[in-house]
Design a protein that fits this description.
- The chain has 400 residues and is α/β, with parallel strands linked by helices.
- The protein contains 15 helices and eight strands.
- Strands 2-1-3-4 form a four-stranded parallel β-sheet. Strands 6-5-7-8 form a four-stranded parallel β-sheet, sandwiched between helices.
- Bound molecules: iron/sulfur cluster.
- Residues 66, 68-69, 94, 96-97, 260-261, 321, 349, 352-355 line the site of iron/sulfur cluster.
Length: 400
Amino acid sequence: MNYEGVIEQSSVGLKELVESGEEIIGYIYPHVPLELFMAHGFTPSLVRALPGTSSGFEESLQTFACSYIRNLYSQRANGQLLPLAGLLFPGNTCDALQNLGDIWRVRFPDDRVFRLTYPVTRYSQDESTTKFLAEELRILSETIANTFNRPFLTESYDRAIELVQDFHASAQFLYSARVVNPKIIPYSEVVRLIRTFLTAPTISSVSNIKDTAARVRVTSEDLGLVDMIETVRLAITSGDYSGVKLPEDLETPRVVIAGGMVEPQAIATLINDIPDISDSAIVLDLLSFGFKTAFTEAPSKSSDPYLAMAQSVLTAPGEPTHEGLSYRMKAMKDLLSNLSIQGLMVCEQSFCDPDQFEAPSIERAASELGVKTVRVPLDPELSDRGRIETRIQTFLDTLE
Ligand code: SF4
């Protein structure tokens, strides 16, 4: 195995897995069917941008490269890596990732690079979108089987479904519990548990989030909040908020974080580091590696696993990398108006075209509801940290 992938050395859980001989396939774009890799006997791991990465090699990338992929590329070039069996790039998402995949193949020819192409559209009358993605997944599965001589095992797939379902159920409960009572568990703790799972989706990381969800459920039962939490969860998954009733004594301000491939834990750290501000003001995020991951439905056990995985991937709350702006804005407005939100922080990855195209529409939709917004441009290194903290603090002060 001559591949040195881009998994952070600080991921102790992952490092231990690698040292114990586990083989890892990394992925970058959030909506990947983890079950597929597990069915082939691999551990999928989210490869993410890291603060403190020096970017001496970034001149190899074109000018439209966002700060996120510059960071990933520099990690690879700098050797800040743990071994990976392969790395999955997405196709049809954004130019930056398409380009990174192409350059990666040339610059690091010994790396095993795979590509999963997503459908551009979210909807189709004749289910051609789902069929297209199912076929892409089938091709990816065959490529992995041929490359590593590891077939897709139905038994492993079924076990993976249960594991990932447990994760989703726990993460959704924790997110919904915080909507009802943001003090019931810190935002930083929820996103830490999700991050640990995405880094190493193992029995141990799922047990951690399951145990935490069980503890929060007991506290919620004592406070008489479980029914409210379940109605919030159902509303978010179905889009029908008619049954939602929140406590009358909600603490304010209630803020939502919108954005895409921004690291939720970085936001939590930023907010917790601002004096006199607690992360209980953050009611929930709508980020790719947080909310959008938690509220994706796991695949069903089916005679056609590729179709089931495609259906699962397409249930993910919409990303700005795909069509469906009006659908996304409606979903966001329903959520903001029914969950008593006063403020929206729109976090944009620096030089991310999809984020920057989406942000004005988000601001407009929020202002139609009287929800105040602030745009927060970020890069993985938080290079403008002082100014960002001041901007967030000023925003929260205006909500008070
Ligand atoms: S941050 Fe934006 S531009 Fe960068 S990889 Fe993600 S979607 Fe693409």
